[in-house]
Protein 1
Amino acid sequence: MKRSVAVLAIVSALGLSGCAEKNATSDVAAPQAAHERRGALDVSALRIMEADFQALPSPEALAEVQSIVAVGVVDGWQEGPALASYPNGPLEHRIFLRIKVTQPLKGVKDGKLKNDSLVFVDLYRGAVVRDESKKPEEWLPRKSPENFEKSIPAGTRATVFVNEHIPYEGAVVKPGAALPENAVLTSPPPQGLVFEDQRLVQQNKADGQVIVGGIEPLDVAGTRSGWLEPKNMDELIARLKLHGFSG
């Protein structure tokens, strides 16, 4: 699986409403599955990257190649570091998704994870707003941690398939909010975040899908892939346990 490629995202301050906003942004939006549009979660906040990767056909296939797999709930969002990734240009801003682990499925035996751990998932924060009155390195992203919190709020059930964080390529210019001393900092692959949408749970009829992909939709591996077989988070957990992932 190849690493996702971030797109330099600059939004004109002149185009922040109506159709002009769509023309001014360089964020790249991935498509939404039909059932996602009926839900309460706004995963579009995460789908702003171009990813060149080989989609794996099932949750267990992804779990096999990631060092940490954990079930939990969203604990919140916090500002990550700002990086000097673009010469003479804006900074690349990161954001951390905090997951309170309730059920570790992989990583405990290796000492990477324990029950009640806080897993911090490092994500790209998205486009910055061009402000000609400031230097490019002072431009800030359109989306704040509060925007992410509104899109995917605390308490949302989640399963994460992640690896230990790799060092940033760009120099850290601003460190962002401090992490706890024993924080588990991680990096996700494009298929590495799955959420359960509470509105879909409440609306669910018969075998309706109530889990959604984060960075990529669940059907990115195809409409007959193993990702579409579990309909809710409990079924996803049961499937992973059936394939030997239990800690």
Protein 2
Amino acid sequence: MKNKLNLFNVGLPDNEDLNNWSKDLIRQRLETTAITSDLVPFVSENLNYELNENMVALYDFHQRPIRGKYQTVIFDKKDGIILCQKNSRQLINHLLKDQMILGAVLQKKLQKKLGFYYRHTISLGEIAYFSMRAHSEKHTSWIGLHHMQTVQQEDGKVTFSYQENGCSYNFEFEDCAPHLYKRLAEGITHNHVLGQMLVKYANSHGFHLNLCKCRKNNLVANQEYFYLTKIQNTMNLTELAEEAIEEFHKNYGRHCADFFDIKDWQVQDHNLIYRLSRRIKSIL
């Protein structure tokens, strides 16, 4: 097995015998010290992996790490099969805190406005990550929803299918939330609404933005899953972002009060600081 990623794109195995994956198959194929020769070129260790749009599927093994140390196994359309010592929670937290504007705050604000209770999706409009269990829980497996064409549920198992360069891949999951189809429809609706809001916001500032048409055959654009009664065509990204920023300030104020052991922190204290922080922007 390689210790570092190749400098060129590895991709996923094109051998039909290696196109179906599940937790059991991962253990069977990667747990042994001698990985089969046809799989070796596609397997790498990456201790610093960061979630990105090329992530097709992520399996969480935090309870029983692969080879005693790899807590996640990631299928990346460019870098192949990646063994990572970070758990799924660490990877998701890094995505939310270091790679996204307003992190989870904006996601939760939109979710609340749509009336969805469970948090399964991280939406970016063209890109969406979907978790097998609500990601407010500590650990779970994920798929890149923007890569998937179909999903099937049978005998308590859920299989997502992905096609690339004439090859079909099936990723099976067992530990899934109840009513997963409903959660999936909520996630696809959430992502669609956020995408439309981004387009409207960009167009209102003179940027002609359209969502990528290459996503039209994937689940993120499958209108059969839309909750049409929930889609708010008049929703304003600016207003939602302002609400998210204000909530971020409130949380920050509470954390500062706790850190400095300020016992009498009041809402009006937050309001004053928030107004002062906004004044600079109003002058500009």
Protein 3
Amino acid sequence: MKSTNYTRFAAVAISLLATSAVSYGATRTWTGLDDTDPTDYNTAANWNGAVPVLADTANLDGGVTELSGGMTNSANALNVRGGHVFTIDNDTGTYTVTRNVNMSRSVIGSSAINILSGEVFFGGLDMSGHDTTGGSSVVTVSGTGDLTIGGFDTLDVGGAAGTTVGTGTFAIVGDSASVEVTSNIFARATSTFSFTLGATGIDTIDTTGILSIDTGAGLTVVGSAYTGGAGTISLFSFDSLSDAEEFTATGLDSFTGLNASLVYNLTSIDLVLTAVPEPSTFALLGGLFALTAVMVRRRHS
């Protein structure tokens, strides 16, 4: 399914870039002024002129926007800033941004993109916020959301150490959400990658490029809903790991009856789950040790 998604993304991207060569498109800024549905992405009255199309740049600078209804939408670039919350619950529809999706740039605020359903294609996703002071960027893929990133730029999360650029959190929730990155992933010092497992596990964040981890980058695991038992779950797969750094991990104690640890391999980072011995097992082992001690004493008496 993922290779099919990327093929479709590439076809749409080529078409839109060809269009942009003829026309640079308009800049469409969200106003949310429609009296009937002030959050609907596809309502022209919520924009300064028209719903973004083709080579347009879409600016979401504060407010709430919802894209739903199984629609097919596209833009050349998307800016989500100033505390804006953009929710995509688009069923069988598609949403394509051929170039970068930029968050927390220039306009400070805790901005969020929530992908609940539908196929979403971003040419790149910049959550580094390197033009701002403070603020945060959060992208969450949950439900049956299907996100592909790449073809134009990278997935860049958080800011560098010693800066005041704010934080970035990239989260995947449940066992039906899907994420694929066809370029490099940069986990900066103020980034967090969050994995909330469903009953059977979670999808791997696949990248055909490198994974770069800065000192201080965080990884959070939530395992309270997981019932799949002991085993190995791949959280990241990549061509190579560019640095020797490891994530600062939290939540490894959130599983019931399982011990969790992270294992760093040449092309993956895996969550390894092992069963916690039952109390009766400890009691049996204690009894065996006690019996052994008694036998040793008798031999020496």
Protein 4
Amino acid sequence: MKAVVFAMVMAVSFNVFASGDESDKQALQSLLKQTQSLSAEFEQQVKDEQGEVLQTLSGTLKLKRPANLYWHTKEPDESVMVANGKKVWYYNPFVEQVTIYAQQDMVDDSPLLLVLNSNGNQWQNYNVSFRDNRYFVEHQTNGSKLELRFIDEKLTEITMVQAQGERTELMLNNVALNETISDEQFVFDVPADVDVDDQS
């Protein structure tokens, strides 16, 4: 499931974050509350332990409160992920399969979805610390981690680290904040003649 959320990429180990305090968590939640929607292009890199790039993907990302996500990576590794607050659809055109998950169940496995919910109960499961112009968010039990970098209160970098050490880095470009995004963007129509694996 973790690989699904992070566009089926392989990544590497990362050091443990410092423990956080409530003031850092509140500051991050306050910053996230200011963003009602976000649209961006992204470059996604997977690196090995020596920092060598193993894979590069590009695509588009849209976030909209309270819990909507659209994620599209381009060919040759095309995939689409859509979340509407209740379900997450992951579509891989190459294998002609759509997998459906309950979004609530995926927050612990995907701290990226935590960004959409600045006040949710899920935050109780995370420690937050701030250093070097980055917020470090770490799950208290499963070890999943998230790094968020802001420039002028605009999210510009996201790094996701899973408990087993997988690391995926996203650089956001052409970021647009708080622009209108139609709810239709977060409706996924299952293509004809594809396999559907409903795990929701």
